[in-house]
Amino acid sequence: MKILMDTCIWSQVLRKKTPNLNLTNQLKDFIDDGRIVIIGPIRQELLSGISNPSQFNKLKHTLSFLKILF
User: Fold this and answer.
1) pTM
2) CATH class as words, domain 3-69
């Protein structure tokens, strides 16, 4: 079964100074298992919140490994 994570979950893991470790580990496990998919609007929301070019490129590269649903 594929899982579509909403922006609020990604934000909890990517943007918090002290992310929830249980949530982070669960998301990592889902990604490693190939279960996470993403849609364009969520990808865009995540990327639009990054102002540092280095962080932007790193996140863009990381997200490129997820299957994008249209």
Assistant:
1) 0.82
2) alpha beta
